[in-house]
Amino acid sequence: MMRVFEKMGRTLHLGFLLALSLVLILNVAHGGKTSTFVRKVEKTVDMPFDSDVFAVPPGYNAPQQVHITQGDLEGKALIVSWVTVDEPGSSEVHYWSEHSKEKKKADGKVVTYRFFNYTSGFIHHTTIRQLKHNTKYHYEIGIGNTTRQFWFITPPEVGPDVPYTFGLIGDLG
Ligand SMILES: *[C@@H]1O[C@H](CO)[C@@H](O)[C@H](O)[C@H]1NC(C)=O
Ligand SMILES: *[C@@H]1O[C@H](CO)[C@@H](O)[C@H](O)[C@H]1NC(C)=O
Fold first, then answer.
1. pLDDT value of position 169
2. First and final CA of the chain: distance in angstroms?
3. Which pLDDT score, from 0 to 100, does residue 53 have?
């Protein structure tokens, strides 16, 4: 019996040390909470359907539903995604940093899917790599048909005290 208690004691002791070192580590790295945002309990107001973000852009095969996703763990890659409806078109992204006007090119893939009687548009995903941290880039898509231009800023280099604000979107539709 005594042995068991002794063992338990040792385990507890280890657990305490672990907790303490965690507290110490957390105290050294102040990465913690960087945003005061707290989600409201009430249902949020829906974005109105006539909002310009839902409008079909004018022009033949113009890129729609354009969005970006971080493309690697350090923030040096970015995935550009969009949909074209008239034809597959090009998956090329032309991009340039605001410090250099030299355009670079990245190519990607185009996919479609069917769900019962629904057939999707042409869905493009193109990854841009070897970007510089904390840098504004402009990019163009829809090369060869209706070209649209957008921009983004890459996140800062990863570190213990680097603030990083991001959004999470769950689209169950
Ligand atoms: C698919 O089928 C549903 C149910 O039969 C119908 O309401 C809808 O209009 C159809 N959609 C297309 C794209 O044909
Ligand atoms: C649209 O773009 C694709 C890819 O660049 C090209 O092959 C096609 O000819 C273009 N279509 C029109 C109508 O310009």
1. 78
2. 59
3. 80
CA distances from 106 to 65, 113, 129 (A): 19, 23, 8
Provide the residue type at 102 as one letter.
E
Query: What pTM did the predictor assign?
Result: 0.74
Span of 36-50, 53-67, 102-116, 117-131 with lowest mean pLDDT = 36-50
Ligand 1 neighbour 119 (Cβ under 6 A): no
Nearest to 104 by CA among 138, 71, 136, 78: 138
Alpha helix ranges (H) inside 62-138: none
Q: From atom 7 of ligand 2, which residue's Cα is the shortest distance away? A: 89
* CATH classification (class only), 60-154: mainly beta
Whether the Cβ atoms of residue 81 and residue 68 lie closer than 8 Å to each other: yes
Ligand 2 midpoint to CA 104 (Å): 20
H/E element holding 15?
helix 2-28
The two tokens of residue 108 are 């990607």
The atom of ligand 2 lying closest to the CA of 60 is 13
Name beta bridge partners: 148.
141
Q: How far is CA 164 from CA 25, 33, 132, in A?
A: 19, 10, 16
CA angle 58, 68, 47 (to 5 degrees): 65
The atom number, within ligand 1, closest to the CA of 116 reads 1
- Does position 153 have pLDDT exceeding 60, yes or no? yes
